Amino acid sequence: MSDFKSKLRSAWASAWDQGDVDAFDSIMSPDYTLLNSNSGDAGTVDDLKRQVLQVRSAFPDLSTTIEQVIVEGNDYAIFWTTTGTFSAPLGDVPATEQRVHTRGSVHGHIRDGLIIREEVTWDLRDLLTDVGIPTIRSALEKSGESLTFDATGQPTIDTMKSFNQRFVTGVTVVTTTDERGRPLGLAVNAYASVSLDPPLVLVCVQKTSSTYPSLFRSTHLGISILGCDQRNVLDVFATKSDDKFTNLAWHSAPAGSPLIDGSAAGIEAEIKERFQAKTHTVFMAKVTHVEVSESEPMIYKGGQVFDSRTLTAL
Fold this sequence. Notes:
By secondary structure, this protein is an alpha+beta fold.
């Protein structure tokens, strides 16, 4: 089996460290199956090749070390470690330039000197977790289903909209700066205070937002709670304008996050976690700066905004 071990190490080095994924063909059977014991997913050698190329695209300096190969009869196990820099997007997740050092194992079965089956406990979501970007693994996400149910008593999208429209919130503008220091922002009502001690907040941001890539890479974010007299500000941030700050009064918080002048309140917070949740990312952040004014906050309900002082529509 020393010949098998040598071929295995050589193919892994060629594929994972150099991107020559066809090197797998020399050690894998045409009937090869890749199983993920966490998700239950199964794939082919072509699926493995695509995964390797996807990871290498996001981590161009990827370096993998096989620490040990154990072979017993027709079964074997590989124990490996890898390092690299997250310097290009991985799917819809923007790069963060963070270094990753992760480890894992592969268990497989050999027939006629070729690998016919491998089982892993590691996948791309684990790689994101290792660079500080956990993924929310819901049953809906795992199955790949979307919310399109009906007459069986399950909620439709319209039903969910009706439910959400009964919930009253404030209106916030979440802000950051791009790589050139220009202010960016978007209107968000999916904001919540998580705890007072430590002072944690969260916001949910859709990945299609033009602000999203810069926000994802930022270390801090700003949150301005709009006041009743700021309907014009809300209208600006509800648009797709390239420069929403041109005619807007704002100032920088201590770490550089833009805060909107005249808001009911504003905070700056250090981003601690970025949870991937399908179409959105949940940003968990620790508050580092707070501003509160005498202005009363705007209220949002059912697609409309209201003056919190009189409860009249704005």
